[in-house]
What we know:
By secondary structure, the protein is an alpha/beta fold. It is 35% helix and 20% strand. It has helices spanning 2-22, 24-30, 101-112, 146-159, 206-226, 246-251, 260-274, 295-309, 329-337, 355-363; strands at residues 41-47, 94-100, 123-127, 134-136, 179-181, 185-189, 191-199, 229-237, 241-244, 280-288, 316-321, 344-349.
Amino acid sequence: MVKKIEKDLRRFRQIVRGKIKKDLKKYITQGEMLGRKGKNIVSIPVPQINLPRFRFGSNRRSGVGQGEGEVGNPVDTEQGEGTGQAGETPGQHVLEVDVSLEELAEILGEELELPNIQPRGKKQFVSSAGRYTGIRRAGPESLRHFKRTYRQAIKRQIAMGLYDPSNPVVIPIREDKRFRGWTARQLPESNAVIMYMMDVSGSMGREQKEIVRIESFWIDTWLRHQYKNIETIYVVHDAAAKEVNQHTFYHLRESGGTKISSAYELCTRIVEERYPPDQWNIYPFHFSDGDNWSGRDTDRCVEIIKTRLLPAVNQFSYGQVKSAYGSGQFKKDLDQVFSDEEFVVTSEILDRDGILPSIKDFLSKGR
């Protein structure tokens, strides 16, 4: 019975996974999962799933359930609380299912055909996970190593002339006992830091920031699927840049001009002070509407990317969100300068439908 239930549950999970994968673009563009996520679980409303249910046959006997009644009598005559007229069209039945962020990342990777990332930075730390690989002379009886104990007892009896092959009785004493011991090992673990930079000048409206919020959530989900130890940095900028927390990053309202180099300089300082490239995989993502205050500042941005960021990061990614007030010139300048540079990836996000292709642009390189 338990095996049958587990089989049915696996089948149900496969149906749910198929529904999510089929409607992945809808979930991404709507962004409703972002407000429902817990620590490691996301609740997703999945429509039109046919769940197993009982089907009752015809009941030719009188009575409703176990009570008395005549055939044809209504079960309940009380008026409901709903409003409106009766209709003939079926309703949309929605079921909320819990999906782990790990599984969500797998679905995203399958749908976009994303390769696994080849880590660049390595860092050594002592891991307590693993097996009892060592042998010790002291320990609890639950960890006593049977073969090692009796092997030691035989050696001792042979050395003392107490072992009789015709009567091979081996009785270990306290000094013979050997116990399994936990051995900590140095394991290489890849660390990653994601650095989100966003233009919060007057030309970046609420819709543009929501697009950045949705896309960064999915980028985060994929990278956390690839790395066990990951940190996130948030930087906002108009004419000046500053490091903020996640809530401020997505809800800050600013106005004024745009000086993109301020964000790149702050990003570079953070990398140089906190994240050595030989120990960290570094992923800077910059989102803007492409409006910079001058060509001279764009030249400064190009210089910073070339000389300071590219030697340190796995990939530099720039996403340009279309805005009614943005010129979009910055992406054109980057594409012209870095046309032959594979570690600089730019993407244009015209609207919410452009989020999924943009994610693929950034993550399909496997860096």
